[in-house]
Amino acid sequence: MKPVMQEEPTGCGIAAVAAIAGVSYGRAKRVAGSAGIVAADPRLWSDHGHVRRLLSRFGMRSGRSPQPFRSWNALPPCALLAIKWRLQDGHPSWHWTVYVADEHGTYVLDSKRGLKTHVRRDFGRMKPKWFLPVRRSRS
Questions:
Q1: Superkingdom of the source (predicted)?
Q2: Fewest CB within 10 A of the end CB: N or C in the chain?
Q3: 12-135 classified as CATH 3.90.70
């Protein structure tokens, strides 16, 4: 799986879904827009329903509700991972990333533009709060 860079400050959810679906940010953004999901909407990083709906538009499914992060070893092979969790204006918010365990090992795809590398293995620095397991094909 390859990282996709977010093009707006609040576009991390769209970029995460694009990475999982294997499409460009622009394509994911167009599909999101057709579903009423826009990157400028701050609910995109404070509500998991938007990314779940976008995943379904690409034929994928996620868990219905967030599961608490317990350890890196306990994560499924593909998951939307909430890091940088905080309260902002009294509402929870976070940064969407993608956890992957595949033939290349375990890593996190982070769409933030300013990073030196978008394939992260610095697990001790990331502080996940919760995750949504993702199935990459319909079942």
A1: Bacteria
A2: C
A3: yes
